[in-house]
Amino acid sequence: MRVELVRTVTRDGLRLDGALAEPSAATSDRARGTAAILLHGVGGNFYGSSTLEPLVPALQRLGIAALLVNTRGHDAVFSASLGVQRRRFGAAYETVDDCRHDLAAWIQHLAVRGHQRIALIGHSLGAIKAVYAQASEKSPLVATVVAISGPRLSYAAYVNAPESAVFFESFDTARRMVEAGQGEELFTSKFPFPLLITAAGFIDKYGPAERYNLLRFAAELPCPALFTYGGKELAHGGIPFAGLPEALLALPNADRRQVEIIDGADHFYTGTGAELVACVSRWLAAFAG
């Protein structure tokens, strides 16, 4: 796969990197001006997603430019300059709300290149970011959102779940650290999986404010959206996924949303990548003409 390495700078001054795969000259006329931004999950990066990368050739066949991007939550920890300050970023230090700045910068990058119809495609936490950013910013250039296995980030659901004891162990650790003035210190949470994260970041992401509960902002999307889940992850993924398809379809503006379940798929669509590519391709074909 041939790509162009690209970069952008967010409105708050952070440089981000990505890779742009343009469609071939033979197919570009079918969807001239259409591009997709592909967003990695927690701790991922633009060059390492086994779930998103297989989508790139399919997008190219549709005549859609594919832009694999980093957000400031890429990898576990990295350092970068923000203005005149050197700071730490990455999954351990990110505040999910900052994804609005990252997505705005990448959308602008594509707009400058002449792309006037954009699809946001995210996997896992990237799905949350795609929906959250577009529901918050409502970019007129975004024609559709594709949320692949976006989990439920809901304090209320976690405290009533069978795995609540594990959640409370991590939440109480984070709460005590914040109360002791150690909110920016790192610890390894045990929920929803072992994750290095700041105490304040854990509270922001999983706490009672429920800032990133997919069900709170999915209905506010100003554009059509496709949500996909794997049959295995719905059956065995616990409260982060249980019942989400039905809950999404029960929200207002249900006519703007489609939910597809890929039989036999886990969270990373292991062995079912072709089915995911076909599902997403069918959806995007409607926006490529």
Task: Provide a descriptive summary of the structure in words.
- With 289 residues, the protein is an alpha/beta fold.
- The chain is 32% helix and 24% strand.
- It has helices at 55-61, 99-112, 125-137, 155-159, 164-179, 199-206, 214-217, 231-236, 244-249, 273-285; strands at residues 4-9, 15-21, 34-39, 65-69, 78-82, 85-89, 117-123, 142-148, 186-189, 195-198, 225-230, 257-262.
- Strands 1-2-4-3-7-8-11-12 form an 8-stranded mixed sheet, with helices on both faces. A two-stranded antiparallel sheet has the order 5-6. A two-stranded antiparallel sheet has the order 9-10.
- The radius of gyration is 18 Å and the shape is globular.
- The mean pLDDT is 94.
Helix count from the secondary structure assignment: 10
The largest sheet, given as strand count, sense and whether it forms a barrel, is: 8 strands, mixed
- Strand residue content: 15-25%
Distance between the termini: 24 Å
Q: What do the pLDDT scores average to?
A: 94
Low-confidence blocks of residues = none
**Percent helix among the residues?**
25-40%
Any idea what the radius of gyration is?
18 Å
Total strands: 12
Provide the spatial order of strands within the biggest beta sheet.
Answer: 1-2-4-3-7-8-11-12
Overall geometry comes to: globular
* Sheet/helix structural class: alpha/beta
Q: What is the ordering of alpha helices and beta strands?
A: EEEHEEEHEHEHHEEHHEHHEH
